[in-house]
Give the backbone structure.
Amino acid sequence: MCLALSCLALLPGMAGLSGCEGPPRLPLIERPPPVLRITHHVGGRHERMLIHGGLWYQTFGRELLVLEPSEGSMISGVPLRAIGESGAVTDMVIHGEALFAVLEDDGIAELSLADPRRPVVVRFTSAERLGIRPRCLSVADGEVYASGAGGVVRLADGEVVYAAADSAGRIVTSNWGPVTTVGRRIYRLRDGEYIGSASALLPLPVGSALPGAFAFIRHGDEGASVGLMHSDLREVDAQKATVHLDAPVHRVRVLDDRVWVVTEEEIRGYVLRDDELRPAFVIPVGGARDVDALDEGHLAIAGTFGRGIWRLWEDEHGPGASWASLHREPGGLTWAEFDGRQVLAGGGGVAWLYTAESGVQPSGEDDRPATRPALRATAIGAAAHIAEDGRRAVLSTPEGRAIYDEPDEVKLYCIVAVDGRFWLGHQRGITVLRGRDPEPTAVMGRLRLDGPVRFIFPLLGGGGAVYVSEFGGLGVARFEEPRSR
């Protein structure tokens, strides 16, 4: 008797089966590729603020914060886009019961202020739909305009009212009609006629000593000029009403009879008297980006360092020329060290200790110079480096050499091998390349951050990396399985 059964058909109960075929094969299901995501993030830049209706509206990265003005305490926060999906908020305006916020180069969020303490996003308009890459906003003649790379768009109907090869500035209404700035020139929207010289314009408040006049910024190679212009866009007085600074100017705010000029190293205050700007204040705050008045003796100040309330004069709560309150955030980060789990980084006056996917805390004063990021990387079977011009990554594999250019000639700051791929840190965030044949320059993932991303450190044991962005904060990014919808 044969002991070896060669066919399942011989088993009891299986008489109906013939042959030795196995169970039917299921069709193969292709799994979607993993997606690059930010799994933890801290820090960022406070770029713009508005004190309006008894509330302090403050941008923080991609978020809008609503603060209580007297102490700067949080009332609510509204994420405008997910971290990694867009640039940070660079400007905002309030028109009626709506607040408009620009996410740099990526789109515009419109929020309802029906409940001013808890704004709600009602619409997001992408840069593709706008037809420009937006960077700033303005209200002129009752209309809201978005300006940026490509020109100026009227938001009410989406019409491009001015086309520009370079980036256009805010809109103001002058004796010449609505005008904008491009570079150091003023152009009329209607016909593109060149009118005068300025890099930015903002109207003086109603009731000022110079009705219909403007404050202007004119950027130069080594600094900037700030002054006053009549409604015909002629300078009021180049000697008495214009000041020259040896540092770039980030922002000018005209609040009642004071003109506040925000530079990287300090904030300067001038009193507007008749047709003259008279120096009155110097506030030694580095990294500031914006300022607004809370009352006669207190300013709200925000920037790369965080946000706070500055006391101009001594009162019952403390001395003059000092912080009445201060909330710090990691910013201005130009050096970093990593031990496999924790990053020590600084560059903005305070050193910060970041524990991956946990949190961040101040770690003493920052007194270190900027450090050089990684410009070369090696993976199994491939090597890569950033070219001297900082615009290209050069990859070498057994098949030869390949060149990768980030779109728009964005500057590259670092390159690191993580889990066999090459991660590039640049002005607009992070790009991950395959790094091996075939197609070593194929893009496997992108993250949009408020850069530049100066440092990337692989996590020990693989599975992602820690990034350090000069103005965007710190965090962890990794490839994950796509989330089911």
